[in-house]
Design goal:
InterPro entries: DUF7869 (IPR057191). This protein has about 475 residues and is α/β, with parallel strands linked by helices. It has 13 helices and 13 strands. It folds into 4 domains: about 80 residues, no CATH class; about 45 residues; about 250 residues, no CATH class; about 60 residues. Strands 3, 4, 5, 6, 7, 8, 9, 11 and 12 form a 9-stranded mixed sheet that branches. The chain has a two-stranded parallel ribbon with strand order 1-2. The longest helix is centred in the last third of the chain and has 31 residues. The protein binds zinc ion. Zinc ion binds next to helix 5 and helix 6.
């Protein structure tokens, strides 16, 4: 009250509250800066709506903590528990390959069933678990099926391969150039995997992005170059990642291909798995490949990757032996927007395409069940447009990467190979991608030494004069 009479306001309450965390705010910021610089792997297939990113499998929180403390001055070093808490509370990061053989839906069911005491709820869970498993089995029935008049192609993207692959620790927080491998396997899941039926469509991000046009173009190339004698049905089995496979771009390409295919090919099917159960033949190829890639300490250019892949399948490079077409824009020109289609595009598990009675056109049916046929064939093209009218323009490869990536890769190369990295033949691939490194580097070093000398000399003189 005396304070109130003096100043006209009550004293501020000082008891309670958080007096600790702000003391360490600078440490927390340093940790978060460190973590945000790490190079995360894209979240592979959309497991629900979670945005979980993945760090390389050989890392752990413990290793990250050691790396962090080694890179910081004493006043920013932290205890392991503090680092762990910051890591867990602020990020949704995991270690290792996001793809596992264990399905998260299956796991959730068995966990819930274990602890549920109410019999009614428990029974419902058991039924739903059974349905989930039946769906997965129905999908694999299609992957396994073998018929003399059926041709099956299954396809998937391998996780991005990075260039240059080096054992240096700095690679963990450096962006690298991505090499994409979109693999198509011919045959059912029972077929042997041999280079004769494994086709690896590869490209590096400096030439094309990884998008639906590239996927559609690779599939088109495969369909056009496959022996079709005696085939009535072509079955495409995809991983259900919407950005790459499950879109009108791929579907438009399929309608065009079927419109032009030999007449004995009656139908084309595209089948998508249920989330969590998508282990298809290309994944077996990737598992073998990744084992082989792990053995190499250094992979310095695309050809070195291609040489590894060649042992497992035929390497076909996009922009060279396989042309890339703009199927996406052409799909929008010829087809109706999906909102006006006769079935829910997103929910369909199986698309079935067949020729229309109208010459040059193809009809589409979408089924939301694996076994039960509930769709109808209808035209999805705009009035007056036919599937055969799809004439996508060719897209030429570029040769560039982003500024920030170029600067990261340059640092990595200097770190591993020294300032004269661009004279090493093995690294020729990087030279045109990274703007003249010699000039820029020389400029930077001369500037740096000058400023350092200035700073070093002047205070010394001052100190000596003061001493005198
Ligand atoms: Zn499952």
């Amino acid at each position: 009250m005396s304070e109130y009479f003096k100043a006209g306001a009550l004293l501020k309450e000082k008891r309670g509250g958080d007096h600790v965390s702000h003391k360490h705010a600078h440490k927390k910021k340093a940790i978060m800066d460190f973590i945000s610089k790490l190079n995360c792997e894209e979240p592979h297939y959309c497991r629900g709506k979670t945005k979980r990113y993945y760090l390389p499998a050989e890392l752990s929180i413990n290793k990250l903590w050691l790396m962090y403390n080694n890179s910081q001055t004493d006043n920013l070093k932290v205890k392991k528990s503090y680092f762990r808490n910051t890591f867990n509370q602020n990020y949704n990061l995991g270690f290792g390959s996001p793809r596992t053989d264990v399905c998260s839906t299956c796991l959730q069911f068995s966990e819930k069933i274990k602890i549920e005491k109410d019999n009614n709820v428990r029974n419902k869970l058991l039924i739903n678990q059974r349905i989930h498993k039946l769906k997965a089995n129905a999908f694999f029935g299609y992957v396994k099926e073998e018929q003399s008049d059926l041709l099956t192609l299954s396809f998937d993207c391998q996780k991005n391969l990075c260039l240059p692959k080096t054992p240096d620790q700095s690679a963990y927080y450096s962006r690298q150039v991505n090499l994409f491998n979109f693999t198509i396997v011919q045959g059912s899941s029972k077929s042997k995997l041999e280079p004769s039926n494994v086709f690896a469509y590869c490209w590096v991000e400096n030439s094309f992005p990884k998008a639906s046009n590239q996927i559609a173009s690779a599939l088109y190339h495969r369909l056009q170059n496959t022996e079709l004698d005696g085939i009535k049905t072509v079955r495409l089995i995809a991983d259900g990642c919407a950005g790459q496979n499950k879109n009108t771009t791929v579907l438009a390409m399929c309608t065009k291909w079927l419109a032009e295919a030999p007449r004995h090919v009656k139908t084309l099917e595209i089948i998508f798995p249920i989330v969590g159960h998508s282990f298809i033949p290309p994944d077996r190829v990737f598992a073998q490949l990744e084992k082989e890639i792990r053995k190499r300490e250094i992979i310095a250019n695309p050809d070195e990757y291609y040489n590894i892949i060649k042992d497992f399948g035929q390497v076909i490079t996009l922009g060279e032996s396989c042309k890339v077409f703009n199927w996406k824009d052409e799909a929008a020109r010829v087809m109706k927007p999906v909102g006006r289609w006769h079935f829910q595009f997103k929910n369909a598990k199986r698309y079935i395409l067949k020729r229309s009675k109208k010459e040059g056109n193809v009809l589409i049916k979408g089924n939301i069940h694996y076994k039960h046929d509930d769709g109808v064939f209808k035209n999805v093209n705009l009035p007056g447009r036919l599937s055969i009218n799809l004439q996508p323009a060719e897209i030429s490869p570029t040769n560039k990467i982003s500024e920030s990536k170029a600067s990261d890769v340059r640092k990595l190369l200097i770190n591993h190979y020294g300032d004269n990295w661009h004279t090493i033949e093995r690294l020729n691939f990087f030279v045109p991608l990274i703007s003249d490194p010699s000039d820029e580097m020389q400029m930077m070093t001369t500037q740096n030494t000058e400023t350092i000398e200035d700073v070093m000399c002047e205070p010394q003189e001052e100190i000596t004069s003061m001493l005198i």
